[in-house]
Amino acid sequence: MRELIETLHNSQTFFADLPPAILTLIFMILGAVFFASVMAINALVAVYAERKISAWMQDRLGPMEVGPRGLLQTLADAVKLLLKEDIVPAAADKRMHWFAPFLVFAAPCAAFVALPYTREFVFANFDIGVFYVVSITSLSVIAILLAGWASNNKWALLGGMRAAAQIVSYEIPAGIAILVVVMQAGSLNFNDISLAQAGGIHRWFIWQYFPFNLIAFVIFYLATLAECNRTPFDLPEAESELVAGFHTEYSGFKWSLFMLSEYAEMLIVAFVGAALFLGGWSSPFGDSFGLGFLNKGGWGAIWFTLKAAFLVFTQMWLRWTLPRFRVDQLMHLSWKVLTPFSFACLLAVGFWMLI
Amino acid sequence: MSSFDIMFYVIGAITLFSAATMVFSKNIIYNAIGLLFAFFGVAGIFVMLGADFLAATQLLIYVGGVLVLLLFGVMLSQRITGLEMRTGTLQIIPAAVVCVGVAAILLRMFWMTPWQKVEVGAPQPTTKSIGTLFMTDYLIPFEIVSVLLLAALVGAAFIGRRDAR
Amino acid sequence: MTPVGLTHFLVLGAILFCLGLLAVITKRNAVTVLMGVELIINAANINFIAFARYSDKDLDGQMFGVFVIVIAAAGAAVALAIVLNIYQRMRSVNLDEADSLAG
User: Fold this and answer.
1) How does DSSP assign A8-52, residue by residue?
2) Handedness of CA B108, B113, B114, B115 (dihedral sign)
3) I want to staple A246 with a disulfide (CB 3.0 to 4.6 A). Which of A131, A160, A314, B148 is the partner?
4) What is the pLDDT of residues C41-83, one digit of tens each?
5) CA end-to-end distance (rounded Å), chain C
6) Backbone φ/ψ region at B74: left (φ over 0), alpha (ψ -120 to 50), beta
7) Per DSSP, what are the bridge partners of residue B27?
8) A92-122: per-residue pLDDT in tens?
9) d(Cα A75, Cα A65) in Å, to the nearest integer?
């Protein structure tokens, strides 16, 4: 992004009169608005996709009334949510009740900027890109705890504390699995990791150092599934157990913020998985067969989105196939299964790289 | 007034305002939220000082670890009768005198000392250098800190366990 | 106003330190005292990193900062375990009431 600002500043247009600081500020604001709208559009598409996919798996049709084949269903839902009355419990802390949904929205929004959409243009090319995304997603834990507490409701509080414990426990195997890949790429920069996998499907990290990277991918996928509170790990928001968990007392616009951030978190986790294990913006054909142009420019964003969309589809597939974990089974899985396996993968890949 | 100065004043104001909320508020959850934004402000200061790896570490460990721990500690140590967790303050006049005195001494020392002038270049990415230093110059502290973390893990799990009395 | 230099960062650290000190001295709830201690540790960390930037000993300050963060996290974990244990025995985290070892 710095190069873009330099080019604009040195050009002969009216942008040359503005100091670079103002240009940077304008780009930052534009980027924030853009990614917030990406989050909203993602929720629109993802909710429709989830309802259709779950319907087809259950041998029914899903939303078909609103719009052609139900395409406008989510829009109707969004309008309904915006028009609902905003209820705050009488004994709840009003300021915190208002603040928690915005905090839980801000975390995925901040994580979107560091992802490598194309080879040439990354919005924020951090040298610690992977580390930054991991640390920003840990912000949603605080927001969930605050939401559970601010509702002044035993079940919301229980749901909030369970969600926080679950997310914090599953951050560890996810982080170690990410370390396996970072060790092989030698850098925390997303673009460098994608460059290390460019050149065809045989160079993607998921097939290297077989089978340890595959195990690391499975561990990463399961751990991030638990971080997004998706089934089979969705005890914090289980409808049949805790009413609606930490967002029981939220209605209307604030509830839609929670839902928006859950789908945005799913997309971010899918993007990170695609960037680390499935090659990022590189096409599976590489430079052979004269298809090298598929690696450049806008094609990179298309490949990246396709890979992330496949991972999101698998998340939805798992949701409607598997039953829910009990909370002690959840903790057992994280601490006694995933963490030792991820450490074993890290050690094995480390030794293999040295030999 | 360069943009660096403006950023510093903005981030500094956020940090100080949140720390003041943390100290002077009576509701313990507001203390925790003030601490959250103070941690964010400190991470911003680290970025301005060119320590990018340290800023991300600060976010991950303090906001994602220590603050969650503190919030759990708050929620588990209150009798949940409602939201009336008022924390009192004791002997605020002598405390204020002491703190203002310490601040005055420190500030005077900082302004009066002729610090050595050093040319600062553009901030460099630090991750690789920190990693190399961990394995060469700072190897022994690294190993000792890992043993310390193991001891803290075992100790905290042991102390915090619920006895069946 | 002089351009922002080493002194500005040190002043920020000093003010944060004094706010944390105020919290540690005056607060009655043990968890709030712990929050004050974390604030003090962060202020000291700002000091380390500011000196790392504005001197020729480049990365030593940042190494110290990493170790400070790690050790502070370990200390906070153990301190909170102790606070929870006290709560289980005394049903209150008021520091004034934890005086059974006093003469």
Assistant:
1) HHHSSSGGGGS-HHHHHHHHHHHHHHHHHHHHHHHHHHHHHHHHH
2) negative
3) A160
4) 999 999 999 999 988 777 888 999 999 999 999 999 999 999 9
5) 55
6) alpha
7) B86
8) 778 888 888 899 999 999 999 888 888 877 7
9) 13
Quickly list H helices, chain A. Answer: 2-10, 20-57, 73-83, 94-112, 129-137, 139-150, 154-185, 190-196, 212-227, 253-277, 297-319, 327-332, 339-354
Residue B104 domain flag? no
Determine the Cα–Cα distance for residues B15 and A216; give it in Å rounded to an integer: 39
| CA of A138 vs chain B CAs: smallest distance (Å) | 5
- CA dihedral angle for residue A178, residue A181, residue A186, residue A192, rounded to 10 degrees: -90
Q: Given its phi and psi angles, is residue A200 left (phi above 0), alpha (psi -120 to 50 degrees) or beta?
A: left
Distance CA A292, CA A286 (A): 6
Verify that B9 and B69 share a domain, yes or no.
yes
Give residues 2 to 21 of C whose Cβ lies within 8 Å of B: 3-4, 6-12, 14-21
SS (H, E, C) C35-70: HHHHHHHHHHHHHHHHHHHCCCCCCHHHHHHHHHHH
Instruction: Based on the fold, state whether residues B133 and B67 are members of the same structural domain.
Output: no
* Omega within 30 of 0 (cis) for the link into B123: no
pTM, two decimal places: 0.91
Helices marked H in A228-284: 253-277
Domains of chain C in start order, with CATH, are 6-92 (1.10.287.3510)
Which chain C positions have a beta carbon within 8 Å of B31's beta carbon? 32, 35
Would you put residue A210 in left (φ > 0), alpha (ψ -120 to 50) or beta?
beta
Residue-range definition of the domain harbouring residue B150: 125-165
**3-state class of A210 per DSSP?**
coil
For testing contact with chain C, the best of B30, B45, B59, B91 (most C CBs within 10 A)? B45
Residue in this structure with the two tokens 């351009």, named with its chain if needed: C3
Nearest Cα to A283, choosing from A272, A295, A274, A271?
A: A295
Tokens coding A56: 């087809």
Domain count of chain B? 2
